[in-house]
Amino acid sequence: MKLILIGCGAVGEVVGKILLERSQNTDWLKSIVFADYSIDKAQKLENLFCASNVKARAIQLDASDKHAIVTAIQAHNIDTVFDGTVPYLANTVFDAAYEAGCHLLNMGTWSLPKGDIHAPIDAYEAYKEFMTSHNFDNHEKWKEKNLTGIICVGIDPGVVNVFAKFAAENYFDTLKEVHVKDGCSIQHKNGDDGVVFGFNVWTVLDECLNPSVTWDKASGYTAHPVFSGEELFTFPDGVGLQKLYQIEHEEVVCMPRYLESYGLEKCTYKIALDDKLVQALKVIDQLGMRSLDPVEFKGQSVRPRDIVAAILPQPDSLNTDYEGKMCVGIHCIGLKDGLKREIFMYQSYDQEDAIRRFDSQAVVAQTALGASIAIELLATDKWKTPGVYSPEAFDPIPYIQTMKSYNFSYGLIEMDSDFNTALHKKQIDSFLKV
Predict the structure, then answer these.
(1) 208 exposure class (CB count in 10 Å sphere: 0-12, 13-18, 19+)
(2) Where are the domains of the chain?
(3) Across-strand partners of 350?
């Protein structure tokens, strides 16, 4: 693989570090170009590879310029693009990869709501551009050009999509419901009351303040007002009881596409949001500070969201002053051998482990690990089929097997008394040929 990593922010940096680890014992990564609007960020990653057998290069690149991306790809003889940029650039990077004749992986897609809604409505009526539509609508074009595009390959979406496919094939005769749950117990060690954005500020503003979306086989996709679906859920591994809200997330589009044939009837996504963060998001929204429309201020054109992103802490600033865990998983409900079954399959990651291993925040490390595994599976042809797909389209076994070699553990809880957890530990081992 000759890879270009576009976007060397928090996740892109950790992906680079992971690829450096993997390149020590494998030969599938031939070269890598680190590209970012900030040449300093790109050069920081290039320097990590100075003693590696992988050829590395740093370049300055404006990822909003499709022609510039295509030119960079051609100049460096790239065959695969990894998009580590913010969501609003996803379509541009996706189209550039196609134009340049490259395979592509990204961690999420772009969507554009028409505006705020105050009651549930058909999701397609709530959005000018619906999440994943631009990607899946181009499936045949990518297929004809013999290119593979794999979208949504982080932790959620990403790892949880793999878990859902694995559960459908190995734990259920009929998988009726998948509910993605994202929990977080990370907090300041000294009880700092500040607002924490655990992921890229741009992404949080879009996902949390766009209308949330759910899927039901009977009624299709439904958009809901922001901060709908409040629920309490207890996470394992010490993360504990969390207050969850529905937000816009690609799983509710991807999972029905590939898992409806397994009996899927419902799919939702909910995430733990701190009360202080919810209040801050509401204020930002009410003040119009999430807008991308430029305003004139003292003779300069400024986008309000740029100001918000410049002021608020980005995830790479959440350092050793913070402790706790991330826990992301799928609550699955269905039938096995004629009996109801419920499981929660999850991946948890400790903040201190993330700092020690990657000098990174836990959710960033989770996302980067999930993405890096997908990059390796594409490079080794285990996940390579012409067209545009999300992770559920592929065999989940190679992914879950590879998680072990990445020191990226997972867990499973049997939530129904009709089944025995120990029995299923034995079953999961047999599926993986451990």
Answers:
(1) buried
(2) 2-106, 159-362+396-432
(3) 325
Q: What pLDDT is recorded for position 417? A: 59
Intervals of the chain under pLDDT 70: 191-200, 202, 313-320, 417-434
Statement: the pTM of the whole predicted model exceeds 0.85: yes
Question: Tokens representing 148?
Answer: 């593979």
- The position carrying tokens 């269905």 is 334
**How many angstroms separate the Cα of 188 from the Cα of each of 196, 319, 323, 365, 403?**
9, 10, 6, 18, 29
CATH of 2-106, one of 1.10.101.10, 3.90.180.10, 3.40.50.720, 3.30.70.3270: 3.40.50.720
Q: At what angle do helices 275-286 and 201-209 cross, to 10 degrees?
A: 80
> CA distances (Å), 338 to each of 70, 137, 347, 407, in order?
54, 38, 28, 36
E strands in 288-410: 295-297, 300-302, 322-323, 325-336, 339-350, 387-389
3-state DSSP call for residue 47? helix
Which amino acid would we find at residue 361? Answer: Q
Amino acid (1-letter code) at residue 119: A
Q: Which residues, including other chains, have CB under 8 Å from residue 346's CB and lie 6 or more apart?
A: 163, 181, 235, 236, 237, 327, 328, 329, 330, 410, 411, 412, 413
Burial class (CB in 10 A: 0-12, 13-18, 19+), 342: middle
Q: Which of 3.30.360.10, 3.30.470.20, 1.10.1200.10, 3.40.50.450 would CATH assign to domain 159-362+396-432?
A: 3.30.360.10
What is the Cβ-side half-sphere exposure of residue 168, based on CA atoms within 13 angstroms? Answer: 25
Closest to 167 measured CA to CA, from 397, 402, 367: 397
Cβ pair 348, 239 in contact under 8 A: yes
pLDDT at 280: 83
Q: What per-residue confidence (pLDDT) applies to 204? A: 82
Ramachandran quadrant class, 420 (left: phi over 0; alpha: psi -120 to 50; beta: rest):
beta
